[in-house]
Design brief:
The structure holds 3 protein chains of 3 kinds.
Chain A: H1 49-64, E1 69-73, H2 77-82, E2 94-96, H3 102-115, E3 122-128, H4 129-134, H5 137-146, E4 151-156, H6 192-198, E5 203-208, H7 212-223, E6 229-234, H8 238-241, H9 248-257, E7 264-267, E8 270-274, H10 283-287, H11 303-320
Parallel strand pairs in A: 1-2, 1-3, 3-4, 4-6, 5-6
Antiparallel strand pairs in A: 5-7, 7-8
Chain B: E1 2-6, H1 7-17, E2 22-25, H2 32-43, E3 51-54, H3 58-70, E4 75-79, H4 81-86, H5 88-97, E5 102-107, H6 121-125, E6 132-135, H7 139-156, E7 160-165, E8 173-177, H8 181-187, E9 204-205, H9 214-243, E10 251-254, E11 261-265, H10 269-282, E12 287-292, E13 294-296, H11 300-306, E14 312-317, H12 328-335, E15 343-347, H13 357-368, E16 375-377, H14 382-394, H15 401-409
Parallel strand pairs in B: 2-3, 2-4, 4-5, 5-7, 6-7, 11-12, 11-14, 14-15, 15-16
Antiparallel strand pairs in B: 1-8, 6-13, 10-12
Helix pairs in contact in B: 1-2, 1-7, 3-5, 7-9, 10-13, 11-12, 14-15
Chain C: H1 2-19, E1 26-33, H2 38-51, E2 55-60, E3 70-78, E4 93-96, E5 116-120, E6 142-145, H3 147-154, H4 161-172, H5 177-187, H6 190-209
Parallel strand pairs in C: 1-4, 4-5, 5-6
Antiparallel strand pairs in C: 1-3, 2-3
Helix pairs in contact in C: 2-4, 2-5, 3-4, 3-6, 4-5, 4-6, 5-6
The chains are: A alpha/beta, B alpha/beta, C alpha/beta.
The complex binds thiamine diphosphate, iron/sulfur cluster and magnesium ion.
Iron/sulfur cluster binds at residues 44-45, 48, 50, 77, 81, 157, 161, 237-240 of chain A.
Chain lengths: 325, 410, 210
């Protein structure tokens, strides 16, 4: 494909990546020849964490594969906002089949590439948390178990956003959605990165849109591994979570800094690195700015529920060793 | 080369000769022997290059086939019954995307009650999913239809289902002529896809289409499938020339010359019907058979033409639309809607109930004298059914239906 | 023997229908138990007939073939293409792989007195308690073969199907022992094949002497 050098207006900002750095350490997004795989003009909400995460992830994957990449996409916000008929934002070969089969479609693509001897072309599958942890779970597990040469990226905005913010199995305790109007129950949870690790696949990582350089690095690393890989990206959703559009990155950072969303890497089922928390913050810092948790603070402060959420965060801190000692 | 082999093996040999590049396998009776044989052929190195993917469900099987086909590989899978329903969403997707996947369906009933034996409920339930549906009369035709199916699918860029009766054909040993590789290669050129996921020329496949263009996209699917009505006879003709035998086509008549009564059917029951009709002819009955090989697209003109001389039509079918009656019969009625002749519907062989010559002869004799209800259930135990219905009227907690039937039967 | 006389009655009714069959198809029904190779026997018989240029069709009764459960398989032989797909209700020959089925399953259903009967047993028809039933049958078409014992001797396991096919070849003359051996070799390989071929040959001899 041909490249159009991209103009940057936010020189020096965190988003684009600091171009004053030496070339090798610059982010993919700072590169004038970045592919803009998910091009501008799509229909995502302002401040959509999923759009941001996908752009960084796919451009990084393109960079790592020298632009030889094919993507399979599950139904969901990312698919809908990126391909409003008759336009498409995708600058890469891309297929959307169904809500629950992205991993299997990617397996098929990988199998086709293998028979055709195209080991240079790599495959990613991507979907939202619903398409990953719920309806697409069986296909995902099958792809892991066979160790197919696919990187699966889950954009976790903790609910079914495309259909209007309904609960998914990734919706956190107490969060209000259109189908948990009193706040989600405190379930046992479904920790997909952990489940992915249980398959013993070569690479599992989590990331957030608050640390985009880390996200890019993990995608690069994933693309240099063969076999099934899983990347779980925490992406804020201003519409579904009820926070201002300009707070998306801050909310994501708070998810990590409170310990609610551990950021780590694992190889063959073993945790190999953990992003430490710089300064541990109470979960209320994270919960308060989001309307989906407003009922925890008014008409009365639900200290009981907040305490349980804090317990979960503290458990993560212990489990992953999130704090430098 | 003539061989005495199992139907499933014959199909596997045919599929292997078509050089599929990706095969997805998930087991369900009575399809198992087909994918097992293919697995063996692939691991022996006889079919290469080919990726044999053991998937975790039929939904994944079809999805892997979708991915593979979109990436330019010739893709194949096989299923039956519950498995076909489990992939229903992906079936519509494959045809909607225009991906030329070929799939064998070893026809089997759908539960509940769970039943592994043959009827056509599975493929009939998916008759409107946009796939071409071809039905095999015997194992030779099952074999041949796969070769034709790949040719047709790739020419049209549409998926094709080859339907063969589970157990009755899949598990039957009979004589088949297995073509050689050169013959198949000459008939079936390498896959040249209309669309492909290729980094050198990126496209988006499967984008959302709104009200402004959806009608047009769907119309094109209809138009494309309708093109099969002219392509299928053409490829059947080419097949006859290349392989020296009949296979496929839209519909085939048997002893319909001067037939007042024509029996329409699909699949392996045609053999039993032909023998039955031979006997009825022997005793002076003016009766013939029309075997429909292509059920989707529905060959209106071919059926109309084949039934032009008939005074009545009997449709023997292994499926039904609950609350309506026959499915094939309704299609037949639309084909001959301008002629006011009776179309009798005989629902037969559900869940593997044997369809015997004796029962067929009896029902056809009644049809020939117009002494038949419009919808009949062949060899139905009416007394038993009445007993169950009576009990349901009398007792509120009458219990599970299947259990009652079995108890009363025992 | 109340059950058997009922069977016999059915037979009288059906022989007329059987006689009016137009084609000269020969139909064999094989009864046995899951694990005994009942389905393979029908398949091998069809291969043996195919080897001699006949049309043949073999198919199982499609039950859930768990080990030990009664299983039925069918085989039709003809000089021309076989189109009919119904189960065999009026067999010209019956092969019974397990005599314990005689009093459990209606193995004789639809049988005419002109039929062949081959039973895997060391006992006689009298000892098996079916002498009354076969009274009107042609004695030269009734035969027993100790197929389990022959299989044990030649194969090492009591798998009677190949031996019975050898016996059937001798009894009916429909297929040659060579064709049966060839069919066995197309299903099995190596020592297993040779053992089964030997068992079939021994059964052939036994049946001829019978
Ligand atoms: C089989 C099926 N069931 C339901 C839907 C409706 N549906 C489409 S997208 C979606 C929600 C997607 O949620 P998620 O995967 O979390 O992605 P998000 O939109 O949040 O990014 C749902 C329920 C569908 N398309 N297909
Ligand atoms: S609803 Fe959420 S995920 Fe969907 S486009 Fe808007 S911000 Fe993004
Ligand atoms: Mg979501």
């Amino acid at each position: 494909m041909t490249f159009q050098p991209v103009k940057f207006y936010q020189t020096g900002t965190f988003t684009v990546g600091n171009r004053l750095l030496p070339a090798e350490t610059r982010s993919v997004q700072a590169n004038m020849r970045r592919t803009n795989s998910l091009n501008s003009g799509h229909r995502a909400c302002q401040g959509c964490g999923e759009a941001l995460g996908a752009r960084y992830a796919i451009d990084a994957a393109m960079h790592a594969t020298e632009n030889r990449l094919i993507a399979a996409n599950a139904t969901g916000c990312l698919e809908v906002f990126s391909t409003p008929y008759p336009e498409t934002s995708w600058q890469i070969p891309w297929i959307h089949s169904l809500f629950g089969n992205a991993a299997a479609v990617a397996t098929g693509i990988a199998a086709a590439l293998k028979v055709k001897g195209r080991s240079d072309v790599r495959v990613i599958a991507q979907g939202g948390d619903g398409g990953t942890t719920d309806i697409g779970f069986a296909c995902l597990s099958g792809m892991f178990e066979r160790n197919d040469d696919v990187l699966y990226i889950c954009y976790d905005n903790e609910a079914y956003m495309n259909t209007g913010v309904q609960r998914s199995s990734a919706t956190p305790p107490a969060a209000r959605t259109a189908t948990t109007t009193l706040g989600n129950s405190f379930n046992q949870g479904k920790n997909l990165p952990w489940i992915a690790m249980a398959h013993g696949i070569p690479y599992v990582a989590t990331a957030t849109i608050a640390e985009l350089r880390d996200l890019e690095a993990k995608v690069e690393r994933a693309m240099h591994v063969r076999g099934a890989r899983y990347l779980h990206i925490f992406v804020s959703c201003p519409l579904g979570w009820g926070h201002p559009a300009d707070q998306s990155i801050r909310i994501a950072r708070l998810a990590k800094e409170t310990g609610l969303f551990p950021v780590f890497e694992a190889e063959h089922g073993e945790v190999t690195s953990v992003s430490k928390i710089r300064k541990k913050l109470p979960v209320t810092d994270y919960l308060k700015p989001q309307r989906r948790f407003a009922h925890l603070f008014s008409p009365e402060v639900r200290t009981d529920l907040i305490a349980r959420i804090q317990e979960g965060a503290d458990r993560n801190v212990r489990k992953f060793g999130l704090i430098e000692n | 080369m003539l061989k005495q082999i199992e139907g499933s093996r014959a199909v596997a040999e045919a599929v292997a000769l078509c050089r599929p590049e990706v095969i997805c396998a998930y087991p369900i009776s009575p399809q198992t022997h087909i994918v097992e044989a293919l697995g063996e052929i692939v691991s022996s190195g006889r079919l290469a290059p080919c990726e044999f993917v053991n998937v975790e469900s039929e939904f994944a099987a079809m999805s892997v086939a979708i991915g593979a086909s979109a990436a330019g590989a010739r893709a194949y899978t096989a299923t039956a019954s519950q498995g076909l329903l489990y992939m229903a969403e992906a079936l519509f997707n494959a045809s909607g995307l225009g991906l030329p996947i070929v799939m064998t369906v070893a026809n089997r009933a759908i539960g509940a009650p769970i039943n592994i034996w043959n009827d056509h409920t599975d493929t009939m339930s998916q008759r409107d999913c946009g796939w071409i549906q071809l039905f095999a009369e015997n194992n030779q035709e099952a074999l041949d239809l796969h070769v034709i199916a790949f040719r047709l699918a790739e020419e049209l860029s549409l998926p094709v289902m080859v339907c063969m009766d589970g157990f009755i054909l899949t598990h039957a040993y009979e004589r088949v002529d297995v073509p050689d590789q050169a013959q198949v290669d000459a008939y079936l050129p390498p896959f040249n896809p209309r669309q492909i996921l290729d980094p050198a020329e990126p496209v988006s496949i499967g984008a959302m289409v709104g009200p402004e263009a959806f009608m047009e996209v769907r119309y094109l699917a209809h138009a494309k499938q309708s093109q099969a009505l002219s392509l299928i006879p053409r490829w059947a003709g080419a097949f006859r020339q290349a392989f020296g035998r009949e296979a496929g086509g839209l519909a085939r008549s048997y002893r319909t010359e001067e037939a007042e009564t024509i029996v329409v059917a699909l699949g392996s029951v045609l053999g039993t019907l032909k023998d039955t009709v031979d006997e009825l002819r022997e005793s002076g009955g003016r009766i013939g058979v029309l075997g429909v090989s292509c059920f989707r697209p529905w060959p209106f003109a071919a059926v109309r033409e084949a039934l032009a001389g008939a005074q009545r039509v009997v449709v023997v079918e292994k499926g039904m639309a609950v609350g309506v009656g026959g499915i094939v019969s309704n299609n037949v009625r639309t084909a001959i809607s301008t002629r006011p002749i009776p179309v009798y519907d005989v629902v037969a062989g559900l869940g593997g109930r044997p369809i015997t010559k004796a029962s067929l002869a009896a029902v056809l004799q009644r049809a020939m004298t117009d002494d038949l209800e419009l919808t009949t259930f062949l060899d139905l135990d009416r007394a038993l059914v009445e007993k169950v219905l009576r009990k349901e009227r009398e007792v509120r907690r009458s219990g599970p239906i299947a259990e009652q039937v079995l108890k009363l039967k025992g | 023997m109340a059950a058997l006389s009922k069977v016999a009655l059915i037979c009288v009714k059906t022989t007329a229908a059987a006689a009016s069959r137009m084609t000269l198809v020969f139909q064999i029904r094989i009864h046995g138990r899951g694990g005994q190779g009942v389905v393979s026997a029908a398949e091998m018989l069809s291969i043996a007939a195919f080897n001699e240029g006949k049309h043949a069709q073999a198919f199982p009764s499609f039950g859930s073939e768990r080990t030990g459960a009664p299983v039925v398989a069918y085989c039709r032989l003809d000089e021309r293409e076989i189109r009919v797909r119904e189960p065999i209700m009026h067999p010209d020959a019956l092969i019974i792989q397990d005599p314990t089925l005689l009093h459990q399953v209606d193995v004789f259903a639809g049988l005419s007195p002109s039929a062949y009967i081959l039973i895997n047993t060391t006992r006689s028809f009298e000892e098996l308690g079916v002498a009354d039933f076969v009274r009107g049958f042609q004695p030269e078409r009734l035969c027993t073969v100790p197929a389990n014992e022959l299989a044990l001797k030649h194969v090492g396991r009591p798998v009677p199907s190949a031996a019975l096919l050898g016996g059937f070849a001798a009894l009916s003359g429909l297929v040659s022992l060579e064709s049966v051996a060839q069919a066995i070799r197309s299903k099995f390989s190596g020592r297993l094949a040779e053992g089964n071929v030997a068992a079939a040959a021994a059964a052939f001899k036994h049946a001829q002497a019978n």
